Amino acid sequence: MNVGYSYIYDDFLSDRGFEREVAALETKLNTYDLAGRIGRLALFRSPKDLVEGMVKDGTKTLIIVGNDSTLDKVMWFLPDLGITVGYIPLVGPSAIGELFNIPVGVAACEVITSRLVETIDTGKIDDRYFLTEVSVSATLATLDVEGRYRISPTDGGSLFIRNMAAYVKEPILQNEKSTMGLEAIIAAQSSSRRGFPWKRRKNDETRIFFNRGTLFSKDPIEAKVDAHVVSGFRFEVESVKRNFRFITGRGRRLSGVDEPLQTAAKNDTFRSRRKIGMR
Amino acid sequence: MSMFSTKRFEEEGAVSPYGENGVGTTIIAHGVRVEGDFTSKGDVQIEGDVQGHVETGGMLTVGPQAKLTADVRAESAVIAGSLEGNLTVASHLDLKATAKIAGDVTCETASIESGASLNGKVAIGTASAPKSTAKTRVDRVQVEDEETEQ
User: Fold this and answer.
1) Across the interface, which of A150, A172, A189 has its CB nearest the CB of B6?
2) Where do the DSSP E strands lie in A172-211?
3) What is the pTM of this model?
């Protein structure tokens, strides 16, 4: 057993229908000498307490096993723990797997053993970290950017605050990273011309870049943070630079926009290849 | 074949939002209001309503539907909308036929289309540069109050 590695299994993997996949996964991990302690999420069990206990016991690398919802259950506090995180989407489809070039199923073990670690930015909304985006639909909310200016849709619209990518089923809309941490996109609705009510409402998209801001409204805001919904009247939003170490698949470069592979070492990413003899 | 396709976020006719130096193009679309001190290092495109102050180190594009009640500073600018406030452009200013400016304008060089409206002081070319080097191409322009620097 590799004491530096721990695994968080989602609750649904305990079902008989997943026995075969789980067994195949564990066999593969044993082959690569990556077997470690296993913890299971459960209905009345705090994921945060479970993971913090593992870290306290010496876990340096935590692997999330399940689907995108599994990652969402723990993502909101992981960056604070200072560990390296991996993801095995045992059940697809996986938008996060697609984003980070991690295959669905046991093949994801190849990504774990290759250990290509990226240190990436995350977004934070109040005390909750997010990987992809915050989305608010049909709102008149105002975004106060760094106390300098306020921006809001005149007649309502949808608001997206993106860190990595849009959290949609298909296709995945991915933002290249600019030097500013977060991208706010406002899809405003402007009324159709008077006298032509059959004309569709026109959507215009506003796009700004910022590091820190406040989202507020007189009416309750229901915001979807990755896959989790939060509600309130006021949220503090910020970009947290390079605070999350994540194992990604080959071909994904997230540390910079046009960063050549040769400079990987200078940007706190590394690649190691484990040569394991197959039995 | 993957069920999902990964593609860059694009829209027909939209300018690529990411400049050469990695600073994105800020877009204030129609139907959005901005109030306050708005600054950007990259290019800015405005089609909405802006009140306050606008400053960019790149190119400022004000579309025909835009309404600005602000003092504006930019490296270069293309104005096709309405501006109430002073406009200071470090290099070239391009006023389109639908431009309506009520305020003082300062720029290095300018091109003004027929139909553009300008109501305020105009200073084209630097104070130290000879008058003959000022590059201006002026068609028929409605200018109600104009004064050029010597």
Assistant:
1) A172
2) 172-174, 182-190, 202-210
3) 0.76
